[in-house]
Protein: Non-specific lipid-transfer protein
Amino acid sequence: MTVSKAALAIIGLVALLSLSAPDAVEGLTCGQVTSSLSQCMNYLKMGGVLPPGCCSGVKSLNGMAKTPLDRKQACTCLKSVSGSIKGINYGLAAGLPGKCGISIPYKISPGTDCSKVQ
Structure:
């Protein structure tokens, strides 16, 4: 899988989540978000067995998103990237945090307002 596919896969967490710039000036960057979620791409498109590497990335990203600004940036990145990936199953994306045993303070959805994420 190439890095660009990984970036696109980030949506996995989907609609993981729109600022005009994909990278954050401070805090969590879109590159960190996409890298963390690269192992989720195939699952988000085709379902099936959830790869362990995907949950490791989801948990890593959750650990990096410590502040409200970090969470807003992760949301914005996911939302931006998700719009450019064909075939993403948003239902699978919304369920990803729970399947990986974590809780996030917002719903993963194309309609999520990232500016309200705390």
Observations:
- The two ends are 32 Å apart (CA to CA).
- Confidence is low (pLDDT under 50) at residues 1-25.
